[in-house]
Amino acid sequence: MPLTHAVERELLHLRDIALRGYRRSDGLFEIEATIADTKTYSFANENRGRISAGEKLHGMVMRMTFDEDLVITGFEAVSEYTPYDVCPAAAASFSRLAGLKIGPGFMKGVHERVGGTIGCTHLRELVQQMATVAFQTLYPVRRRREADSNVPKDPSAKPALLNTCYAYAPDSPIVARRWPQHYTGPALEDPREELNSFLGRA
């Protein structure tokens, strides 16, 4: 379903963000992220003189390397386009993220290492999105590792995804189908048949 029809308007600002997840030949994984801010008009800038329409105000690239346990083994950042001459110096501090594990408390650790005046607001914003993409990148790898494991799963263990979004609410038919022991909604004859009515609640 598309958005409602927009009122007549003028485009002023564009922010483009791209993230890519890779498996390396040495068994590690990488997320590369880019962010670019541009304006649809030209304007004066104290350090660069003038920034033309379509020219990057911010242009930044980051690479995060991590292992199967989601421990960061290396982190690079480069600020190619910035509004101030001093800004690129902040990128080097993001190497301090090496050693952090992506999981509960991750962003707290990020702010401890590169928060405030140590780092860069735009680069920090990208880090959180890179962590999310790391989970998506590792999904098939971790599923295969779990399938190959001889350790039996505890059926009473709470799935990590439970209660994290609308689809994984305890009364969702998706939860009824995937983790019936954690389902708290009304009895369903067939969770698949109930999915459409559930989505209609949104």
List keywords for this structure.
202 residues; alpha+beta; 4-stranded antiparallel β-sheet; 4 helices; 6 strands
Strand content: 15-25%
Average pLDDT taken over every residue? 90
Helix and strand run: EEEEEEHHHH
The N- to C-terminal Cα distance equals: 12 Å
Number of DSSP helices?
4
Low-confidence stretches: none
Q: If you compute it from the alpha carbons, what radius of gyration comes out, rounded to the nearest whole angstrom? A: 22 Å
Which shape, going by the Cα principal axes? Answer: globular
Give the strand order of the largest sheet, numbering strands 1, 2, ... along the chain: 1-2-5-6
Largest sheet: 4 strands, antiparallel
In total, the number of strands is 6
Helix content class: 25-40%
Helix/sheet category: alpha+beta
- Identify the quaternary structure here: single chain
How would you describe this structure to a colleague?
- The chain has 202 residues and is of the alpha+beta class.
- The protein has 4 helices and 6 strands; from the N terminus they run E-E-E-E-E-E-H-H-H-H.
- The protein has a 4-stranded antiparallel β-sheet, covered by helices on one side.
- The longest helix is centred in the middle third of the chain and has 28 residues, at 121-148.
- The two termini are 12 Å apart.
- 17% of the residues are buried.
- The mean pLDDT is 90.
Secondary structure layout plus pairing:
Blueprint: E1 13-23, E2 29-39, E3 43-45, E4 49-51, E5 56-66, E6 72-81, H1 106-114, H2 121-148, H3 173-178, H4 191-199
Antiparallel strand pairs: 1-2, 2-5, 3-4, 5-6
